[in-house]
Amino acid sequence: AAKHAGRHQYCFFRQDMKDQLQDHLMVLQGIDQAIAESQLFLEYQPIIDLQTNQVSGGEALVRWNHPQHGLIPPGRFIPIVEDSDRIEALTLWVMRCSCRALRQQILPQAPDFKLSLNVSGVALQSDRLRDGILEILLREKVPPQNLRIEITETTMMRNVEKCAETLRHWQHAGLRVLIDDFGTGYSSLSYLTTLPIDGLKIDRSFINKQLPGSYCPVVEAILALSKSLGIQSIAEGVETEYQLQSLREMKATHAQGYLLGRPMALEKLLERLGEIEVG
Ligand code: C2E
Ligand code: MG
Ligand code: MG
Ligand code: MG
Questions:
Q1: Lower Cβ count inside 10 Å, N or C end of the chain?
Q2: Alpha-carbon distance 44 to 264, whole Å?
Q3: Which residue stretches of 37-114 are H helix?
Q4: Over the chain, what is the mean pLDDT?
Q5: What does each C-alpha distance from 128 to 12, 36, 133, 166 come to in angstroms?
Q6: What is the position in ligand 1's atom list of the atom closest to the CA of 82?
Q7: Per the database record, which ranges form the EAL domain (predicted)?
Q8: pLDDT in tens, 132-186
Q9: Which atom from ligand 1 is nearest to the alpha carbon of 201?
């Protein structure tokens, strides 16, 4: 029986490796064409201000509509692109596309809207990307205060000095950042006071643990931390009324999640602007 199981495991392992290899090839061979031929597109997920109960911003999330493989979620291709130099081109594409949407369609309706976009900490190591982001900001005439760069805690900590340098450079242009998936990495808390950080996005895994009868001290600790730093706290992955209610009671400033709106097409987001939310 052991021999049998062993052989099975071997097969699964091989299949898994084969899939990974195929994903790598598909992504790296296709990404340039995807950018050039508009196979990539953005969806926008609303972010709610818990004081006004209105949409105060949104997060741009990239998707890939592959001609052979169909819709590919970012979790399947971003990590692969991040390990190649193509992450630069992808990030600049996302920046250009979201800045256009912001200036041409969102801001005319909602002048205070904050659009956040994800920039990999890996991409922050590149001076070309650092300058490319600022060029697009100027060329697309987007007020920097309407934009937020989300950087995950883990990719930022991989090279905190270089990331800090880029962020300080951007700070002069008025750009500010949110720390994404906060609580999952190992941050030195000292950088929170020295970098242009506008808020902490509390990772979904902690919000998930907020169930009736079970209390998640991490959420409350992050809320206390952001409060004492005088920055925003955005709860990610809010799926239930119970979670929303407890976040309100704990004075979180913003929330995002399927309960409040799934990632959606730009047109749908525009319909949500100015709408009063329930709750
Ligand atoms: P993230 O930046 O933490 O984005 C939030 C993810 O959580 C999104 O997944 C979103 O659809 C999902 N989500 C939001 N609310 C809920 C909820 O209530 N429940 C659950 N289960 N999930 C929820 P998505 O779009 O698949 O993106 C995954 C990750 O891919 C993002 O995590 C981000 O790290 C990365 N990503 C997405 N777009 C970009 C991009 O343009 N550039 C870079 N560098 N990374 C990106
Ligand atoms: Mg994000
Ligand atoms: Mg996140
Ligand atoms: Mg994430």
A1: N
A2: 5
A3: 74-82, 87-101
A4: 91
A5: 41, 19, 9, 11
A6: 44
A7: 24-277
A8: 999 999 999 999 999 999 999 888 888 888 999 999 999 999 999 999 999 988 7
A9: 3
